[in-house]
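Write out this protein's structure.
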Amino acid sequence: QVQLVESGGGLVQAGGSLRLSCVASGTIFRINTMGWYRQAPGKQREFLARLTSGGSPNYADSVKGRFTISRDNAKNTVYLQMNSLKPEDTAVYYCHGREASYPYSEYWGQGTQVTVTS
């Protein structure tokens, strides 16, 4: 089992920045892909960014150029640096992890709220 715990959400004005963190624990050696999603009220969960071991990061078009995903393997932590935030970025942000081999289990954090005011 893998546990993911996000932190770093909060209230920020439009144009501001936040950095989210996701600390992984448990059988993390099975995880090769870590990413971030968000869900706004009344909307489906939306992919934002992912980072696969040994690969290049992938981003959704809606955040490309504004958000940056990174990881610190020594701290078992994945980050999402969010710049130039907009009110439409307001959502609950979730950390996601997926195992590299069968059964390719997926794990989610509990979410952290990000609110961007205009």
